[in-house]
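FORM 7B: Structural annotation worksheet

SECTION A. Query
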Amino acid sequence: MVVNKSKAAFRTIAEVAEDLGVATHVLRFWETKFPQIKPMKRSGGRRYYRPDDVELVRTIKDYLYEKRFTIEGVQKLFKEKGVKALVGEEIQKDFFEAPLDCGALDEATRGVISGLMSQLKEMKEELQAALNKAEK
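SECTION B. Predicted structure
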């Protein structure tokens, strides 16, 4: 089942496994061997892979399956050269195809966005206050 998601969207372990052509248990195993793979885990242990995680797993798969490295070989490579050298310095740089041109927004749209930002700030403050109260 291919889902048409943004490049920046988080993906479930099943989506990543399908995309890479490996089983989900393989991804879970790689997580034990490569501490660099750190998907977010929600309640119930459900994994959500960030775009950086997906790119890292894709790189690991390439080294293991295409370049025929062993797991120990890839671990050594990561240790010697660093993950950024192998995966890329700015992985997320191309996630958004075109930057948002804020100059192209009309006044009404700018007003709506400004209002929404104010509401979000207020909600953040209310949530922080509730969290502080709950911690006491």
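SECTION C. Observations
The chain has a mean pLDDT of 83. The chain is about 60% helix and 5% strand.

SECTION D. Sign-off
Analyst initials: ____
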